[in-house]
Amino acid sequence: MGARCLALLLLHGTLLLLLLLPQLPLAGAATRYYTFNVKLQNVTRLCNTRAIPTVNGKFPGPKIVTREGDCVVVKVVNNIKDNITIHWHGVRQMRTGWSDGPAYVTQCPIQTGQSYVYNFTINGQRGTLFWHAHVSWLRSTLYGPIIILPKAGLPLPFTEPHKDVPIIFGEWFNADPEAIVAQALQTGGGPNVSDAYTINGLPGPLYNCSSKDTFRLKVQPGKMYLLRLINAALNDELFFSVANHTLTVVDVDASYVKPFDTDVVLITPGQTTNVLLRAKPTAEAAGATHLMMARPYATGRPGTYDNTTVAAVLEYAPPGHIKSLPLLRPSLPALNDTAFAAGFAAKLRSLACPDYPSNVPRRVDKPFFFAVGLGTTPCPGSNNQTCQGPTNTTKFTASINNVSFDMPTTALLQAHYTGQSAGVYTADFPASPLEPFNYTGTPPNNTNVSNGTRVVVLPYNASVEVVLQDTSILGAESHPLHLHGFDFFVVGQGTGNYDPSKHPAEFNLVDPVQRNTVGVPAGGWVAIRFFADNPGVWFMHCHLEVHTTWGLKMAWVVNDGPLPEQKLMPPPSDLPMC
């Protein structure tokens, strides 16, 4: 009897030890090791050479290729003067919040000459995500794809492609983006916009001095290609289309969707979209050069976005002499085509089948109503101080429920884990606006915001609903909201003000799309739901970097559950210090 008890005790201790160790890959899975050396590299675009932060000297950075269930281990070494963190955008990070990456939220930054090992497992995701820096505006050049293949032996729920190709949208600045944002914060005005958009780091033939810097996708007639679209741009939502080719959407944010055909894809910063493209048969393909083009979907004030167009070339093998062939350009929607944006979003539905169920919360434990938008704050200094914001006495800012988030100087997750949150954050983020108003109508006279490092605390596994309401303060504008640590279900969206007595009856609780980033419609609202099943501290922010800089961000603190496997893992020994 004693031997049996001892055996059970040893078994229990072993199981507990396994639960406390860094996440291990599932049976049959692999561990993928990478080293990211962050260093400056001279890169020339638009005939302008700049020393830019890169990973391993590559721009865009290297791709991570993994499978669902694999463990990914990345050692990041900082060889530049700026502090660095890397965020693995969209990765669930179940119980591994220490590896999520946003500076001063889940970790202190990696300082010059230091390193940190990110260690996480890919759980229940397959498709495309991406990684990027998560300090200031350094993600303008520090980004790259994460390609998640299905578990070995599992088929894709759509036609197997001949080849898959990452298509990463970015923005190029001739000036240093860090200097641009510093100047904007000093003056209180909007930052200077980018000088070009890029596709896989290249501006393409529509920009000056860039015909040689053009991405070319070579395809074989009749073959199927999977384009992994990633919007890594800092501040712009984009329309994308390929001349004379139909795209079939099959996956967004590493979640499968019911396939649908479209000529144009709308993709916000922070979103990924996998599309199938079938190359034309030989006879149709030989006689033309096809452009792939992207330009902004812009709902904000004129002058606040880069109003240019980026192009790449789709060419058939064997390549002909491009100049001798007719050039076909795709037709893209108008810059402010909100109707297209709403219609495209409405087509996105999850598979909701036995193999890929839609586990949307049916009940709501914790309802929230977040008014998101721009606002103002008085110019600093004396009463006669002027700045370059909406008026000469105010600066631009942004908020959720009139709270513009102040970043702490130590990591929120560490303060939560050690129980030393006093002086770091307060758990009193408002669940709804303290002073309701006509959100999409005439703005209130007082547009000033409050400031604070305020969070929402959630019990483990609570079902959460957040209605995100755009406001017309300083103009209605679309806001791509990104939630770290979770996928959520987009259960409803609409124009105007959200009506709690009417709109919930129209929610889709059957097959809503599952995402990590959603566009809050300009002059409208969107409703999301998720289970708070991931203990830790999770950032939620607008993925337009200028709005994040201005304070359109907050954090969720999810408490541990009662069981060992429902608790945040201990911090790694090499966690950076502030």
Automatic annotation (TrEMBL):
Keywords: Apoplast, Copper, Lignin degradation, Metal-binding, Oxidoreductase, Repeat, Secreted, Signal
Position of the signal peptide: 1-29
Gene field: LOC127769036
Span of domain Plastocyanin-like: 38-151, 164-317, 432-560
Protein name: Laccase
InterPro entries: Cu-oxidase-like_N, Cu-oxidase_2nd, Cu-oxidase_C, Cu-oxidase_fam, Cu_oxidase_CS, Cu_oxidase_Cu_BS, Cupredoxin, CuRO_1_LCC
Organism (species): Oryza glaberrima (African rice)
Superkingdom of origin: Eukaryota
Catalytic activity: 4 hydroquinone + O2 = 4 benzosemiquinone + 2 H2O
A GO term, aspect molecular function: copper ion binding
